[in-house]
Amino acid sequence: MSDTDIVIIGGGPAGLFAAFYGGMRNASVTLIESLPQLGGQLAALYPEKYIYDIAGFPKVTAKELAERLDEQMRHFPVNVRLNERVLQVNKLAERQFEVVTDRAVHHARAVIITGGIGMFEPRRLEAKNSEAYEENGLHYTVGELRRFEGRKVLISGGGDSAVDWALMLEPIAESVTLVHRRDKFRAHEHSVQKLLESTVLMKTPWEVLGLTGEKHLERALLRNVVTGETEEIAVDDVVVSHGFISAPGPIADWGLEMSGGSIVVDSRMETSIPGIFAAGDITSYPGKLKLIAVGFGEAPTAVNNAKVYIDPSAKLSPGHSSHMQR
Ligand SMILES: Cc1cc2nc3c(=O)[nH]c(=O)nc-3n(C[C@H](O)[C@H](O)[C@H](O)COP(=O)(O)OP(=O)(O)OC[C@H]3O[C@@H](n4cnc5c(N)ncnc54)[C@H](O)[C@@H]3O)c2cc1C
């Protein structure tokens, strides 16, 4: 249980930056994240990919950006709660909210929802025995590249992530085989061109039928989806990049006005319930863009307006951070 000024739901880039900004406004902050790590999509879905559209960073990996946001947030004593899923938010009175999770009940004077694309999970590989090898050779995210050093890697998928992972792993792994059930890849032309020039072995239009191996993964059975021809290849790791299934999860049941699975907010980033604010991918308003840079703007707007909601005598403007002594 905690009793804080602001409870932030979701530890993605918008939530991390909001938590930092809460500290800037002298607000006590509890940040609740359902995953075992901070960073949201950056850390969970594409940690090793480069991001090119963050102001001030010509190029930064998603993992590094998540780490920098974490470091920036730690300027302040934010109460970070990982592996904790928010199930319900109840407004008891003005400036009195109850945030119910699967582990505790938190009390807050304002709430900011930064739940992104909600509880997300990867679309599973539909192949024989695949469940038996999860986290034992079968991966849904690449994570640390080093763990693939000198290994025979098979990547299943045909989108940007599959192609990018194939290119990133090529210089590290012993071999990389990219299996895609269609003839054409749904990836940037530039990446596909690099793929054609690389040593990545492309198997199209093929699919993974099953996995075998005694104590750990040893072989993958492949099938040509047009001819029906089958082939078994030796593998140490299979990386599946078939996209993600996401749902707003419990957020849709909190009585907030929603639009197409997102939370409707006004120009103060306030939801239809006064005192509950939102920022990042989860928000909806005319002209909304689901970009990290946009979430970085929405987070301070939400926090500063939450500050005024908590203390109507407070100024909306935080002043300039360059005047802070830290
Ligand atoms: C492959 C890929 C590449 C991308 N590249 C770019 C790019 O180059 N540039 C760019 O601007 N954007 C990019 N994006 C999009 C970008 O990652 C998102 O816009 C950004 O992550 C949104 O941040 P967020 O904090 O709003 O939400 P998220 O990153 O989705 O984080 C939300 C967090 O909230 C948590 N959560 C949800 N519900 C609950 C709950 N009930 N209780 C507790 N925790 C909860 C989730 O577990 C998650 O960690 C990319 C996305 C992908 C998938």
Account of the protein in words:
This protein is an alpha/beta fold. It folds into 2 domains: about 5-120 and about 245-325, FAD/NAD(P)-binding domain (3-Layer(bba) Sandwich), CATH 3.50.50; about 125-240, FAD/NAD(P)-binding domain, CATH 3.50.50.60. The chain contains 6 helices and 22 strands. Strands 1, 2, 5, 6, 7, 8 and 21 form a 7-stranded mixed beta sheet that branches. The protein has a 5-stranded parallel beta sheet with strand order 10-17-11-12-13, with helices on one face. A 3-stranded antiparallel beta sheet has the order 14-15-16, with no helix packed on it. Helix 1 runs parallel beside helix 3 (about 60-75), helix 1 packs parallel to helix 6 (about 290-310) and helix 4 (about 160-170) runs parallel beside helix 5 (about 190-195). The protein is elongated. The protein starts with a strand and ends in a 16-residue tail after the last helix. The mean pLDDT is about 95. The site of flavin-adenine dinucleotide (FAD) has 39 residues, from helix 1, helix 2 and helix 6.
Topology:
Blueprint: E1 3-9, H1 13-24, E2 29-32, H2 41-44, E3 50-51, E4 60-61, H3 62-73, E5 79-81, E6 86-93, E7 96-101, E8 105-113, E9 119-122, E10 138-139, E11 152-156, H4 160-169, E12 175-179, H5 189-196, E13 201-203, E14 206-212, E15 219-224, E16 230-234, E17 237-240, E18 244-247, E19 258-259, E20 262-264, E21 276-278, E22 283-284, H6 292-310
Parallel strand pairs: 1-2, 1-8, 2-5, 8-21, 10-17, 11-12, 11-17, 12-13, 20-22
Antiparallel strand pairs: 3-4, 6-7, 7-8, 9-18, 14-15, 15-16, 19-20
Helix pairs in contact: 1-3, 1-6, 4-5
The protein binds flavin-adenine dinucleotide.
